[in-house]
Amino acid sequence: MLDVRRLRLLRELARRGTIAGVAEALSYTPSAVSQQLSALERQAGVPLLERTGRSVALTPAALRLVEHADTVLAVLEQAAAELATARTELTGTLRIGAFPSAVHAILSPALVTLSREHPGLELSITELDPARAPSALHAESLDIALVQEYDYVPRDPEIGLDTEEFLTETVYLAAPNAEPLTAHRNSPWIAGTPGTLCNTMTQRACQASGFTPHIRHHADDFGTVLALVAAGQGVAFVPELGVQTIPPTVHLTPLPTRRRTHLAYRRGHRDHPVIAAARAALHSAARSLNTIAAMPPGLNHPVRK
């Protein structure tokens, strides 16, 4: 019978493309990954990897086996979820991944609810960019995570993960004055670090308006971004959750662009009691959010809706 742990390694290799990438994600050594995949080949009785120098490629048989691995691992997750429903109290560790602007606004009240209603749970929060969350879920270093997409940066479906709609935010242009986006084609810009969704969105949104932004500063904390705008260092895109306090010299112009957040978890894990409790607490916190959508220009604090 094929070893489930080795199937998981093969699936990760299909996702990441290199043995080194699999080793880093799952905290193995590259040699250990190679040994386990070689053992899987012997179990399967057919070649699974084509080795050329230091690179490897999956054979057609391996790609087919990866499809079965997704099904097998999802069924095992579902079986574990069904067994967990027999417990009278939720225990164990719940590992949640969230982007920085959600930690204060959403995670804090959700953690209060989870701690009160399920004191046997050990809660663990990891702050990370949403682009890294799928890999962490696959590696089982997270159980549930907040993932994102922007209108200009759609999210690719992830094999082995399920998602559900969670939150939609307006994206604002933060600038000294109320001017259209096209008025800032020659302005310096503030964006997230290269490789983040916020950085990609900034470039694509500006390009859709007919220009390429000159990015002078890189910052991932939106409080820092707004402080730089207030200091006259440039303009920036800021989603609703990123606005806690608005500096008096910063004007926010709502744009048609939206940021959409989804809850993500491993396939078959949705109805696990711990995941169900996390989903309920997170949705409740999101429904209680204060937003700035109804805020008239000139106010420097969000108003309650």
From TrEMBL:
Q: Which residues form the HTH lysR-type domain?
A: 2-59
The record ties this protein, via InterPro entries, to: LysR_HTH_N (IPR000847), LysR_subst-bd (IPR005119), WH-like_DNA-bd_sf (IPR036388), WH_DNA-bd_sf (IPR036390)
Assigned keywords, A-Z: Activator, DNA-binding, Transcription, Transcription regulation
Tell me which CDD domains the record gives: PBP2_LTTR_like_6 (cd08423)
Q: Which Pfam families match?
A: HTH_1 (PF00126), LysR_substrate (PF03466)
The record's family statement is: Belongs to the LysR transcriptional regulatory family.
- This chain's protein is named LysR substrate-binding domain-containing protein
